[in-house]
Amino acid sequence: MSETDQALDSDSRTPTDVYEAIEREIGTVLVGNEAAIELLTVAVFTRGHLLVEGVPGVAKTTLANLFARAAGLEYRRVQMTPDVMPADITGTHVYRENTGEFELQKGPVFTNLVVADEINRATPKTQSALLEAMAERRVSIEGETLALPEPFMVIATQNPIEMEGVFELPEAQRDRFQFKLTIDLPDRDEEIELLDRFDDDPELGPDSVDRVVDPETLVSAREFVSNVYVARPVKEYVLDLVGETRDHPDTVHGASPRASLTFMNGAKALAAIRGREYVLPDDVKALAPSVLAHRLVLSTEADLAAVDRTDVVADVVDAVTVPDASDVRAASR
User: Fold this and answer.
1) How far is the C-alpha of 304 from the C-alpha of 317, rounded, in Å?
2) Does a cis peptide bond (omega within 30 degrees of 0) precede residue 56?
3) Cα-Cα-Cα-Cα dihedral of 75, 222, 257, 322, to 10°?
4) Cβ of 46: how many Cβ atoms within 10 Å?
5) Considering 221, 241, 260, which residue would you say is the last residue of a domain?
6) Is residue 77 within 8 Å of 89, Cβ to Cβ?
7) Cα separation of 209 and 28, whole Å?
8) Of 221, 255, 281, which residue constitutes the final position of a domain?
9) 143 and 97 share a domain?
């Protein structure tokens, strides 16, 4: 029996085991994406969705495909363009002449992991077609409500440098994404390693990745996450961070209570991945840019001054006192 088969047969894999297996397998193709893989794993453990931003060519879609294959998730990709209609996402009823009846044709949203590539190129109406699926994990097609598979996750990508022919995501849509992940260009050492790998194997890609876990393992790992303890000082720290976004001079709307819940659940998953049964303030702090930046609505003055939302988040984190880790550990016993 291969190492992969043994991994799939295991019934007691911890979140740490799951993350390390996925990260190790994806690492056979990509270089330097550990933080992104960790955030993807946190999202799948907490029923979250990701908005992934990066310039063309940094493997946004490839990373999602590799993650799906390593995690044993059914994967579908939709190239979002202005002519994509809501029914192209959710599905519709199609008339079959041979039977004289209408037959339900499910759209690509009926999968474990759907990638909405360049989501900001779709019209607002089509973008909104994802809202019910992301929020309720079900869709309505001509009056019929259908449940989506479990696990279910949306990863939407967007290109930050092209502004023509795009439709900016409205606040309600952005808030549905648990995290925003920014993928930067690799450094020189990482890029030379990437060149070496593809020089040795030009066919290297998603097909090179083996399944190292399965959907059932991901769902069972959620039980570990749900049992992670969050001490009162950590919850207060979360509320202080979220409250500070509402009072910052550059924002007209700060983060919502959904952001507070995302902080708590995400920090529990991050703690579990890192082998702990309790959350530390550093778990919350590490998630702040991914949880907060895309949720902030800047003032007109801040927009005109080209204020970066990540700079606002940095101000927020600096302004809030971090609870003492030793006190949190004592409270978590």
Assistant:
1) 23
2) no
3) -120
4) 21
5) 221
6) no
7) 8
8) 221
9) yes
**How far apart, in whole angstroms, are the C-alpha atoms of residue 174 and residue 279?**
26
Both 234 and 138 in one domain: the answer is no
Q: How far apart are CA 262 and CA 304, in angstroms?
A: 30
Q: Say which amino acid occupies 202.
A: P
CA 136 to each of CA 222, 241, 304: distance values in angstroms, whole numbers, following the listed order: 18, 27, 36
User: Residue 56 sits in a domain of what CATH number?
Assistant: 3.40.50.300
Residues 43 and 62 placed together within one structural domain of the fold: yes
Residues in the chain: 333
d(CA 113, CA 160): 23
* Rounded-to-integer distance, Cα 304 and Cα 279, Å: 39
CB atoms within 10 A of CB 308: 12
Q: List the chain pLDDT tens, one digit each, 333 residues.
A: 344 444 444 456 899 999 999 999 999 999 988 999 999 999 999 999 999 999 888 999 999 999 999 999 999 999 999 999 999 999 988 888 788 788 888 999 999 999 999 998 888 888 888 887 888 899 988 878 899 999 999 999 988 776 665 777 878 788 889 999 999 999 999 999 999 999 999 999 889 999 999 999 998 999 999 999 999 999 999 999 999 999 999 999 999 999 999 999 999 999 999 999 999 999 999 999 999 999 999 999 999 999 999 999 999 999 999 999 888 888 887
